[in-house]
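Ligand-bound model needed. adenosine-5'-triphosphate.
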Amino acid sequence: MAQVTLTNVKKIYPGGVEAVKGVSFDIPDGGFCVLVGPSGCGKSTLLRMVAGLETISAGEVSIGDRVVNQIGPADRDIAMVFQNYALYPHFSVYDNMAYGLRNRGTPKDEIDKRVKEAARILAIEGLLERRPRQLSGGQRQRVAMGRAIVRKPQVFLFDEPLSNLDAKLRVQMRVEIKKLQRALGVTSIYVTHDQVEAMTLSDKLVVMNGGQIEQIGVPAEVYRKPASPFVATFIGSPPMNLLPGTIDGPGIVALGDAILEARDLRQDLPAQLPVEVGLRPEDIEIVSEGEAGSLPFDVEFIEELGATQLFHGQLAGKPFVMQTATDAVSAQAGRIWITVDPDRVHVFDMKTGVRLGRV
Amino acid sequence: MVEDRRLGDAIAYVILTIGVLIVAFPVWLTFVASTWDAATIINGKLPLYPGPYFFENYNRILFIGTSSTTREPVLGMMLNSFIMAMAIALGKIFISVLSAYAVVYYRFPFRMAAFWIIFVTLMLPVEVRIFPTFKVVSDLGMLDTYQGLAVPLIASATGTLLFRQFFMTIPDELLEASKIDGASAFKFFKDTVVPLSITTIAALFVIQFIYGWNQYLWPLLVTTKDSMQTIVIAIKKMIVTSDALTEWQLAMATAMLAMLPPVLVVILMQRLFVKGLVETEK
Ligand SMILES: Nc1ncnc2c1ncn2[C@@H]1O[C@H](COP(=O)(O)OP(=O)(O)OP(=O)(O)O)[C@@H](O)[C@H]1O
Ligand SMILES: [Mg+2]
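Prediction:
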C-alpha cells in the first residue's frame, strides 16, 4: 500500500494546450480520492499522468516513496479501470484478468488462485469462460474491476468507470466499489463529473476547474464551506443560488432592501463591499409574512420531484430556487416569505470569488 | 400476404437460378471438354455431358505434359504457381501488417512522409514500372527464380492502407490497458492487434492469393526455363494459333486445374471469415 503525492504537476499537450496548471495534493495510504469537475477541466489528464499514460510536463508524482515520473505504466504498480472498460475482446474473462499477471511471469497456480478469488469477490465466477461481447455492461464493469484487483496494485485508478451504466446499476456499482475499496484498503483515485458519485465515494474530494484545483477537502466540508462560487454551484443539486449583495455590518449582508445574518463571515470587512451571497435551495425555510429577517420570494412555478418539490421564481429580481418536502406546504405560485439559518449563508467576494469565511 | 411472399420468393429463386446458370455454364463446358478426346472436340459436336477420357486426360496433363507446346507436366507448374501465390500473399500480409503497425502506433520522424511514400506506390503498379523492375531483378540474378517471381509483386500499398484503416478503429484504451498490463509493443502486436485483425488478414489473403495465382505478364517476363513456368502461362501457350495443333481437351483440363486452388482458398477462408466476423468485436 502506498500514499500518492502530486507536487506542482503540470501538463502541456503538444500544440500548447495547458490541460493541468500546477496541481499539488496527496492521498494518504488507503485513501479514496475523487477528482471532480466539469468536462475538459483536466481530470483525466491528471489521472493518466499518475498512470504513466501521459508524460508529466512539470512537477513530480510519487507513489509510496518512489518518484514515478520516469517509470513506465507497467512498473508503477497501479491498475486502471477505463470508462469503456477496455477489455480484450478476443480473450475470455479469465484471460482478461490473467493477462497482466502472465506478462509479469506470475506462476500459473498463483494466477489461477487470484483470478478465482477476484471472480468470487465480484460474483462473476460463472462468467470466466465467456468473451466480453457475451456480457452485459454491468458484468463487463465487474470484469474490468477484476482485472484491476488480481494485480494487487498499490493504487487503483478509475476514469469515470460507471458512466456507461444505467442509473440504477450505477448506484449499485457505486456502493460496491466503495465496499470493495474499504475491504482491500487500496489507495484509489477516481475521476468523475457526477457530483453524487464524488460525494458518496470520496474521503478526499478534489474539485477541479480549468486545469486548477478549486478546493480540496472531505466531502462534507466541501459541501458546507465551498471555497468559491464555482464549487458552491458545482457541488450540490439543485445548485446553490448566488445573489449579488453588499456587506452591511459585521456578520450582516444586504440583499437589495432585505438584510440577512451570516454567521460564517469575516468581521473585518468594509461596509458596502460588493459580495455574492450563496443560499442552498435545501437550506431555505418558509415563514409567515413579516417575520424578522425574512425575504420575499415570488414563486413562478413548481416542479414536483416526488419526495421534494422545487419552487422556481424571483428573489430581489434574480432567479431563485428553493426545495421543500412535498407535504410541507401546499404548492402554489405567488409571493411567499423565506429565511435561512445564519449558519448556512455563504458569502464570497464579488471581485476575487474568495469565500469570506471566518479564519 | 403469405401467398405474396411465396410468389416473391419464387421469382427471386428463378432469377438467381438463371444467374447461376449463366455463370456456371462455361465452367461446365470447360469441364466437359476436358473429359473427351481431341477428335470429338475438333469436329465441333461436343456433347453437354462428360465423356470417358477424364482419367486419361488429367493423368496426361498432370504428370506427362502436352506433346508440343509446354512439354512440362502441369503438376510442376501448379507447384510454381502455388509457391508464387503463397509467397505474394503471405509476404504482402507480413509487410503490410508490420508497416501499418509502425505507421499507426509509433511516433517516429517523417512518419507521415513514410506513409505518403507508401501511399504513392499505389499509383505505380507492376505494369507501369515493369522495365525498371525487370532490370533490377535481372541484375540481381533473380530471373528464373521464385524470389524473382514473387518479391517485386509483394511491394504494394493496398495492404498497408487496409490494415492502417483497421488499426485506427482499435480503441486507444486497449493499447493503454496493455501497457498497464505490462505488454511490450511487440506483445501488444502479437497478443492483441494480430488476433483482432484475423478477419482482415483472411480477406487480404484471399485477394492476394488470387492476384498472385492469376499473374500473367510478370511471370512471362522473368521465367525462361520450362521448369519455372506457371500454370496461367501454360494455358496460354497450349492454345496455339492453328486450331488443329491445339490439344483442346488438355488445355481445358489445365484450365480446370488452374481454377481449383483459388476456389479452394475462397472456400476454406470463407469459414475463417465467418468465424472472424462472428467472434471478434472492436
Ligand atoms: N491528446 C491531447 N492533445 C491535446 N489536448 C488534449 C489532449 N487530451 C486532452 N486535451 C485537452 O486537455 C483538456 C483536458 O482534457 P481531459 O481529457 O483531461 O478532460 P476531462 O476533465 O477528463 O474531461 P471529461 O470529463 O470530458 O472527460 C481539454 O481541454 C482537452 O481538449
Ligand atoms: Mg475524462
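The helical segments of chain A are 43-51, 93-103, 108-122, 137-149, 167-184, 195-201, 219-224, 229-234.
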